[in-house]
Amino acid sequence: xxxxxxxxxxxxxxxxxxxxxxxxxxxxxxxxxxxxxxxxxxxxxxxxxxxxxxxxxxxxxxxxxxxxxxxxxxxxxxxxxxxxxxxxxxxxxxxxxxxxxxxxxxxxxxxxxxxxxx
Length: 118
What we know:
The chain has one helix and six strands. By secondary structure, the protein is mainly beta.
């Protein structure tokens, strides 16, 4: 686990939340302090002091009586060469216009709910 990693926190074999590792630094007596931002609403900065053996990916540990595990999510790195030149980037579209087209082209949508623009 290193700075910038996105992690998944699992508690009692159930997904709990995602987080972003901000800092990993040594603590006292073979411990590691992990500062991370829990990606919940509202976001919450957290700091855990873990034994070094538990700071590695996928090794379960017990915290407050709950079996907890941290997994690092894989990073996706794209080269400019891998990018498809035909795919437009940064396209903005109007959601209401898209919804109107869906309604107009859907024969199952009740006629009484369709709105005509004259």
